[in-house]
């Protein structure tokens, strides 16, 4: 094809030389043979130059197409390798060795950090891991206490990685990822200062502390039927609930602080069991508050009654 194009170009160039020269000699008597041949040579050279420009442009387009195909193939290979790493890490979460499970958790977190499109999927997987059956080494009298202790450390790693994957509450441009901790057993979960979408923790069991202070929670909160251990502390100071906040049936076994938190949607504490150390100092309620059937330890209902009165006044 290239040889044919070159031969055709040469033929056109020769025809241009003789055609232009002959035309000048015939139609312009003032032009002598040397001038006509020189002009024809220019015309022939122009044909060759145009062919060279076309050929260079064609080569450039072919090279660009080749590079685009190579880039596309490279991206597909990278996506395939990432998918394989993702699937392998998920598979290793069921490994018998706790070190392997910790490595799998870190691998998933690294994948989510490098590819934000996978962050929600990784958070869902970490939440699912925390929902696995688990016997706490100091609360549930497990058969193998050492194995339970090692599993507890793995679960704490999963909790810490969840916190690192959630964006800062001050980053309003960041996506608000959902977090599902339904039926999870949690200990020392610190999500303070994070931005969260929908937070679900129905029937979760909390050992020790959980911290949601300074969070921006843009979606609904479902803390229904959550049970806190006697020494479980719940810190939720300066938190903004943009949507409904459901704490129905929650059992606070220890202190809980909602100080200066803002409830912009409906807040429900009905059927909740509140410890006398539950505080709402400076809390603001923009929506209705439901606290029917709520009880406070030691028959100290002052905080809840004051809360209900203030909330009703603010709602009106």
Short précis:
The protein is of the alpha/beta class. It contains 6 helices and 19 strands.
Topology readout:
Layout: H1 2-27, H2 33-92, H3 98-114, H4 119-130, H5 145-165, E1 179-180, E2 185-190, E3 195-196, E4 199-200, E5 205-211, E6 216-217, E7 221-222, E8 227-228, E9 234-235, E10 240-241, E11 245-246, E12 256-257, E13 262-263, E14 267-268, E15 273-274, E16 278-279, E17 284-285, E18 289-290, E19 295-296, H6 302-315
Helix pairs in contact: 1-2, 2-3, 3-4, 3-5, 4-5
Salient structural properties:
six-stranded parallel β-sheet; 6 helices; single chain; 47% helix; flat; 316 residues
What does this structure look like?
- With 316 residues, the protein is α/β, with parallel strands linked by helices.
- Helix content is 47%, strand content 15%.
- The chain contains six helices and 19 strands.
- The chain has a six-stranded parallel sheet.
- α3 (98-114) runs parallel beside α5.
- It is flat, with a radius of gyration of 36 Å.
């Amino acid at each position: 094809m290239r040889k044919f194009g070159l031969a055709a170009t040469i033929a056109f160039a020769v025809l241009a030389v003789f055609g232009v020269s002959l035309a000048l000699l015939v139609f312009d008597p003032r032009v002598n043979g040397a001038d006509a041949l020189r002009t024809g040579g220019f015309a022939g050279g122009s044909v060759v130059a145009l062919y060279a420009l076309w050929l260079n442009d064609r080569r450039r387009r072919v090279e660009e197409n080749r590079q685009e195909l190579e880039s596309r193939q490279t991206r597909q290979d990278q996506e395939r390798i990432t998918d394989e790493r993702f699937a392998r890490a998920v598979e290793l979460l069921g490994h018998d060795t706790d070190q392997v499970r910790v490595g799998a958790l870190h691998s998933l977190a690294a994948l989510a950090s490098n590819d934000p499109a996978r962050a929600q999927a990784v958070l869902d997987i970490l939440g699912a891991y925390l929902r696995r059956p688990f016997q706490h080494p100091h609360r549930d009298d497990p058969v193998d206490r050492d194995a339970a202790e090692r599993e507890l450390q793995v679960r704490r790693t999963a909790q810490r990685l969840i916190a690192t994957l959630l964006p800062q509450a001050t980053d309003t441009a960041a996506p608000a990822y959902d977090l599902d901790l339904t039926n999870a057993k949690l200990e020392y979960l610190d999500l303070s200062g994070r931005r969260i979408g929908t937070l679900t923790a129905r029937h979760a069991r909390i050992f020790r502390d959980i911290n949601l202070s300074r969070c921006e929670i843009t979606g609904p909160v479902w803390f229904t039927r959550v049970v806190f251990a006697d020494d479980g502390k719940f810190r939720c100071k300066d938190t903004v609930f943009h949507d409904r906040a459901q704490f129905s049936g929650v059992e606070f076994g220890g202190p809980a602080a909602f100080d200066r938190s803002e409830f912009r949607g409906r807040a429900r504490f009905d059927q909740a069991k509140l410890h006398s150390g539950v505080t709402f100092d400076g809390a603001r309620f923009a929506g209705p508050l439901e606290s029917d059937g709520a009880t406070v330890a030691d028959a100290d209902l002052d905080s809840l009654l004051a809360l209900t009165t203030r909330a009703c006044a603010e709602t009106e």
